[in-house]
Amino acid sequence: MQAREMSLPGVLLFLPTPFHDDRGFFTRTFDVGVARAHGLRPELFLQDSQSRSRRGTVRGLHGRGGRGESKLVRCARGAVHDVLVDARPGSPSFGQQMSVTLDDITFAHLYVPPGILHGFQALTDQSDVCYRIDREHDPAEDLSVRYDDPDLGIRWPLPVEAISRRDLEARSWAELAERSAPTSTQPLRRPSFTIAARDAPT
């Protein structure tokens, strides 16, 4: 398993090497040694969760206030277009975003550090996304920004076919930016980096 640094500071893409034969495949989805070598503390991950989404569904953009949370995200079945937005106050990449394709071909793991907004769109008829999270869920700390916020200008690859009421009622990026970084003079930045995980070397 290899790890690649992404365009947003602290974000990592872990790339396993799936073994295929006539039975199917076998792949390592997590390696404690590799994670520790890149500054992660695997023993802190407390919760594993999974979502299932149909094609065109968008989930996000979600984050967490307070101390934030870090998570490892992978697509166990199908494929998703995964989007991250840097909402860390004082970050040199505040307002920047990146996207990556996670799928059941490469089984790449995306490490999302605290303070990053996360969302994805399902690209296949059924997309199962698995999350490993380092803090117990506290609804009082939930943050969300609308998936179609005009200041962010995220380009979802498919028409949005399904989205939750909670996500439709999410705040704007401007509101979150003002609340989290009221003294920031950094301008909003448009999407600057995209990588398809299946094109990454393994």
The radius of gyration is 16 Å
Give the helix proportion (percent range). Answer: under 10%
Tally of extended strands? 14
Q: What is the overall pLDDT average?
A: 86
Report on the structure:
The structure is a single chain. The protein is mainly beta and 202 residues long. It has 3 helices and 14 strands. The protein has helices at 32-37, 165-168, 173-180; strands at 2-5, 12-15, 19-21, 24-26, 47-54, 58-64, 71-77, 79-86, 97-103, 109-112, 116-122, 126-133, 142-144, 193-196. The strands form 3 sheets. Strands 1-2-10-7-12-5 form a 6-stranded antiparallel beta sheet, with no helix packed on it. The chain is globular, with a radius of gyration of 16 Å. The model is unreliable at 182-202 (pLDDT under 50).
Helix-strand blueprint:
Layout: E1 2-5, E2 12-15, E3 19-21, E4 24-26, H1 32-37, E5 47-54, E6 58-64, E7 71-77, E8 79-86, E9 97-103, E10 109-112, E11 116-122, E12 126-133, E13 142-144, H2 165-168, H3 173-180, E14 193-196
Parallel strand pairs: 9-14
Antiparallel strand pairs: 1-2, 2-10, 3-4, 5-12, 6-11, 6-13, 7-10, 7-12, 8-9, 8-11
Tags for this entry?
202 residues; mainly beta; 9% helix; 38% strand; disordered C terminus
